[in-house]
Amino acid sequence: MPFPLPPPMRLALDLAAAAADGGEVPVGAVITRGDVVIAQAANAMSRGYDPTAHAEMRAIREAAAALGSQRLVDCDLWVTLEPCMMCAGAISHARLRRLYYGAEDPKGGAVAHGPRVFAQPTCHHRPDVYGGIGGAEAAGQLRAFFATRRGAVPPHHA
After folding, report:
1. Which residue has the higher pLDDT, 38 or 156?
2. Is 126 helix (H, G, I), strand (E, B) or coil?
3. From CA 115, how far away is CA 60, in angstroms rounded?
4. Phi/psi at 137 (5° precision)
5. Which positions are annotated as active-site residues?
6. Contact 97, 105 (CB under 8 A)
7. Who wins on pLDDT, 153 or 80?
8. What span, in angstroms and rounded, lies between the C-alpha atoms of 152 and 55?
């Protein structure tokens, strides 16, 4: 029997599904402080004509505004896809305490893949990183979204 997902990742996956329904790449992000959700967002790049409107960036902006601080030192980020270089940089600058992500991104990811931002000596803050949480579901959302875009029928997963 699979373990239930932590509530913030469940919420992030639900946000990703809603993004896909709106024609956006299905990525959702949630920022928590303890058990309290401080911010939540989904990708909105197409809708807003904004290449920086990744779920992580939107959630970081929302959390910083809600807390009245650019530093989110006691907050955790839950995101459905391994962050890209832009988002990893923002995570470091925001001083987020922990990063939990779902699916790995071998092409565009910058945490476990590519530039591995947090492993660089020039990185001033490194969050604790936990990957693969809800990864199968997040990867399935992405596969289904892109299969639909290509006109293929996504595979059925039980």
Report:
1. 38
2. coil
3. 21
4. -65, -45
5. 56
6. no
7. 80
8. 26
